[in-house]
Each structure stands twice: as structure tokens, then as C-alpha cells.
Design a protein that fits this description.
401 residues, mainly beta, five-stranded mixed beta sheet
Length: 401
């Protein structure tokens, strides 16, 4: 039977200013908890005699400033406690790193490895860089009572003095991944202070800035001169792809890009992917009868906005126009503040309802009734190439007086 020992390590950290913590609850409820100015303490538990459940790379940096870098891996149990037993940990490369890069100047290729024994819950090796740009994927592995525990991390090596980054994304080449997911090409142009494109092969790292976002992921590992999704390659450009849930289109998202000593954050507006507009007039015809001849008739235009997979799109802005009639005030939930009533915003179901009004002179009486006039209604989506049209029929059964 193993004997369990528990140690408590207390580390004094900086003083926190008075602020508040937003706590997420079920059903999207949020509780704001005030935090008083205090000196905070970080409590790290250490244990002995427990099984290792996870390995954690501590120093997850992406840039080497020209000298060897120490890699520290924590050995933890299922509760996140450090395992202080002395345990052998094997380090290796998942694939061949850039020429000259090594672990402890012993391991240079993916076919080699080295083993170190952990001390006080951590295992340490040194990564030596070279003058070749690229990415070194370091893996740590151990066996504990028949179980294999492993983890890896990419270390980005850059030899270029990148000073400028320009981010772009192409909303016209969004790809349908199915199951409500879409893939958006993204890229960053890297250059030195004098505008020279970054060297081919320089490693670039992409990630979604907010770690709480679980509906979007960007392919992290890239390098200058790599191929885009369309198999294009440009000087100074690193390509990647963002995969996101279509129910978050029209939302803003931050993507962080790291290359060399630069770490930039870029905000993008997620596009509506392959948008489709459906128009359903209700009623589809309006009539002025002999016995029922009001001055005005009104119809609703039901607007349904979906993406290319049929999922509803919220907050889409739709413009309407008509060959006859006047758009009148819609329900407040569909109004766009400060804009005419022919511009509407869709709700969480992808719906909006416009109202159009016609005067009986729009369809005047004729000697041989009924007079019939077709009114064309056109719709277009702001910021996207999506249009549709429908028709309302006006009928007048009266004869001229």
C-alpha cells in the first residue's frame, strides 16, 4: 500500500486592485462578486505516492532570444497536485526539428530520445536552438505502473527581426465543414522594419485569444511561405484556417498571432456563411372590393435568414425595396436604430417581419375589373452577396366613378 504525503507550498504574489469577478452560472446567469484589495497567495499542493495522471509544460514560450531555453514539465496527479517522487521522464522530438536544434545537445532527430529523473515534481531539459527557423515539437512521456502518460508542446524558433504584421481573412472563400461548422482562411503578412518580407520557413503561431471560447479554433502551427487552403504561397505570408460554429456568425472574435518577439491581437467579424434569404408575404395578395374599399391595405413580409447549412442567422441586416408601396414601422425588435423601416435586423431565430402599406390609388379602378398589379419586393443582405425577391398582387374590383 502506498503511503500518501501532502506538502503545502505558499508563494506570495502581487497585490490585487479592487475589482470584481464575473461567475458564470447555469442558464447563462452571471453573478458579479466583488474582490477587495488584498495580498494574494498561490497554494500549490505536492504529494508523494500517487499515480501520475498528467504532464504539463510550464514554459510555453514561442521565441528564442538567441540562447538555450530550459523546458520544465510538471508531473501531476488527477487533482493537479505535483508528484514529488523521482520518476524517469523521456523527452523526444515528434518530428525532426530545424537543423542544429537539440535537447541537451544529445537529441537532434525524431529517432532519438533522452531520459531524465524528475525532482520535486518537475523534469527539466534544455532546448538548444540554431540559426534555422521552424518549429520543434517536444514530447515528454513516462510510464507509471503500466500506464503511459504523454504530452507535447511546439516551440517556435525565429531568426528574423519581424517588426510588422498585417492580418487578413477572406470571407469569399468560407468552406462548409458540415454539422454547423465553417472554415475561414486567415493569414498574416510579416515583414522587417524596412518592409522586407519575413524569411521563408519562419515559424508563426496562431490561437484564439479568449481561452474560454469553445466554438472556434484556429490551426495553430504555421510558417512564412506555407501553402494556403487553395495551395497558394506568398512571400512573407503565413496561412492558417479558422474553424467556427455558424451560430456565431456576425460576432467579433480575437485571434492572436505570435512570431519572433511580436505578439499581436487582431479582431475579426465572423461572416455569414453562404447566406440564404427567404421572403414570404402575408397575405400574398391585397384586394379592394366593392363592399370593402378601405383607403389602405397592409401586408407583412416575413424574412428568414439562414446560412448555407440551413441554420438561422441572428443580427443579419436586410434591406428591402419595392416597386410600389411604403414600408411602415415594424416591431421594435426588428428595427435598426437610426435607419429607415425598410432596413431590418433578424432575431435569434433568423426571422424579421417588415410591413408594407399600399394606397388604393396604387391599384386604381378600371372599366373592366379587377385591375391587377404585381408589386415586386427585393431583399439584399448587408455585407454579403445574398438577394431574393417576392411578389404581392394588388387587386381592385371597383369601377371608376
Amino acid at each position: 500500500m502506498r503511503t500518501l504525503y501532502i506538502l503545502m507550498i505558499i508563494i506570495v504574489t502581487i497585490s490585487l486592485s479592487a475589482t470584481s469577478l464575473i461567475v458564470e452560472r447555469g442558464n447563462n446567469a452571471r453573478v458579479i462578486v466583488p474582490i477587495t484589495t488584498i495580498d494574494s497567495f498561490y497554494f500549490a499542493n505536492s504529494v508523494a505516492g500517487e499515480n501520475v495522471d498528467q504532464l504539463n509544460f510550464v514554459n510555453r514560450g514561442y521565441y528564442f532570444p538567441g540562447h538555450p531555453r530550459q523546458i520544465v514539465v510538471e508531473l501531476m496527479d488527477a487533482n493537479g497536485n505535483l508528484i514529488i517522487d523521482s520518476i524517469p521522464v523521456t523527452f523526444s522530438f515528434d518530428y525532426d526539428p530545424p537543423d542544429g536544434v537539440s535537447l541537451n545537445q544529445d537529441v537532434y532527430t525524431a529517432g532519438d530520445s533522452l531520459t531524465v529523473v524528475s525532482e520535486s515534481g518537475v523534469a527539466t531539459v534544455t532546448l538548444y536552438e540554431s540559426d534555422e527557423p521552424g518549429t520543434a515539437r517536444v514530447r515528454a512521456t513516462l510510464q507509471d505502473e503500466g500506464m503511459i502518460v504523454t504530452d507535447w508542446h511546439d516551440y517556435v524558433i525565429d531568426i528574423n527581426d519581424i517588426q510588422n504584421m498585417s492580418f487578413w481573412y477572406d470571407v469569399n472563400h468560407v468552406d462548409n465543414m458540415g454539422n454547423g461548422l465553417w472554415m475561414l482562411p486567415v493569414a498574416v503578412l510579416c515583414s522587417t522594419a524596412d518592409g522586407t518580407p519575413g524569411a521563408h520557413g519562419t515559424a508563426v503561431w496562431f490561437h484564439v485569444t479568449d481561452p474560454e471560447i469553445d466554438w472556434a479554433i484556429v490551426i495553430a502551427e504555421a510558417y512564412i511561405g506555407n501553402l494556403s487552403f487553395d495551395a497558394d504561397s506568398l512571400d512573407g505570408v503565413a496561412h492558417s484556417s479558422l474553424i467556427f460554429g455558424g451560430d456565431h456568425c456576425q460576432e467579433e472574435l480575437s485571434i492572436s498571432v505570435e512570431v519572433g518577439e511580436m505578439d499581436e491581437e487582431f479582431r475579426i467579424l465572423l461572416p455569414i456563411c453562404d447566406p440564404q434569404i427567404t421572403l414570404l408575404p402575408s397575405p400574398g395578395y391585397l384586394a379592394w372590393m366593392v363592399e370593402n374599399n378601405p383607403e389602405y391595405r397592409t401586408a407583412d413580409i416575413n424574412i428568414i435568414l439562414t446560412d448555407g447549412q440551413g441554420f438561422p442567422v441572428q443580427n443579419g441586416i436586410v434591406f428591402l425595396s419595392a416597386t410600389l408601396g411604403t414600408f411602415i414601422e415594424p416591431d421594435e425588435q426588428y428595427q435598426v436604430p437610426g435607419e429607415p423601416w425598410s432596413m431590418l435586423q433578424t432575431d435569434s431565430e433568423g426571422m424579421a417581419i417588415a410591413r408594407i402599406q399600399f394606397h388604393r390609388t396604387d391599384c386604381p379602378p378600371v372599366d373592366d375589373p379587377p385591375n391587377e398589379i404585381n408589386v415586386d419586393i427585393y431583399a439584399s443582405l448587408l455585407g454579403a452577396n445574398a438577394t431574393n425577391q417576392t411578389t404581392i398582387i394588388l387587386l381592385n374590383y371597383n369601377e371608376p366613378e
